[in-house]
């Protein structure tokens, strides 16, 4: 009864989809501000090590399970579990992943909605609709609700169209545009007065903060969130990769793209903040740290764009288009996790599954919008700081301790026949077995 499964048509298609999932608000917003408040290049340095040494192996675990099982997260985890107990654990982990990603999407949709509203603001001003522009940029429940609905509708629309016609097609259009917009914005911002101070804040390392445990915790959380790990997203995307594809290389490219775009985003956001400072905009909070939360994107940067005159309108358009694209290619990957499960496990039609689950997420988002202050932070903390690292830990345990090593090797060898002699197979099994779980737990209990 299960519908025929989709498959990405090319390596490029998969790379765009997976890096689209990875590159999101976490890269363009989270990474630069984390770096700025944790010793600049010192954070960058620790982040690079953690991303390659911990997040990449965990990413590979998900991709390999997914492609082996060619199924949604729950079915896939069950299929690599030999005994009854491990099958129950698989069910629990798979479902926790589905629920976690559903809640991540519900807060992500709110923030993404802001990005669309701020994208329409310069358009409205350009067309002379000052009142509309005012409404778009004034924090209000009605505005947030309207844009959550709009954002979720677009996400559902893309996911309804399927793996090739939806995810792959849109990611292949949107990701190259994102990279071009990002580079153009960097080049422009770096020419403005004050930009060099931002570059310094970003790139001159303050190694005194390396010993600070919060740096480690922040860097790991950032790496896991940024590579979309633990919640089954990469597992499901992995299940659509062709058996001819070389997994270690392709996964490496996804990690590389994600990390590079985060590093590039730092070259935009921090210089932009210091340009804002040079233009008289407040960029430090009451404790003297850089403004990092929602205030950064929806007050500091818009205030900067407003000081730039007509050019500012176009810079704002470009910037919020960038943010909207980054959000959308991530949100579709989140919605795909429960949809794949509903389609494969309950035989639901894809478009129906997308509409039903999309509506549920929208309802949760709206509940948060209406109770923003108590709920938003709680949902973010529970999903990204508590659930996601534990799930990442569970995935490593499944691959390294529960799954049969021979099956893993066989799976990797499809598309990479020489893998057994390669560096990846020498290092990775040890990493996911010992280094990743221990490191995740240590950092988690910090
Ligand atoms: N990686 C995305 C980002 O950086 C967020 C994400 C988390 C996407 C979990 C999918 C699953 O914004």
Query: Which small molecules are bound?
Result: phenylalanine
Q: Count of helical segments?
A: 18
What's the end-to-end separation, in Å? 46 Å
CATH architecture: Up-down Bundle
Low-confidence stretches: none
Name the shape in a single word: globular
Largest sheet: none
CATH class: Mainly Alpha
Question: What would your notes on this structure say?
Answer:
The structure is a single chain. The chain is mostly helical and 446 residues long. It has one domain: Amino acid/polyamine transporter I (Up-down Bundle). 79% of the residues lie in helices and 0% in strands. The protein contains 18 helices and no strands. It has helices at 11-22, 25-37, 41-69, 73-79, 84-126, 130-137, 141-160, 163-189, 195-203, 213-226, 233-238, 247-278, 294-306, 310-346, 350-370, 372-402, 405-413, 423-445. The longest helix has 43 residues, at 84-126. The protein starts with 10 loop residues before the first helix and ends with a helix. The model has no long low-confidence stretch (mean pLDDT 93).
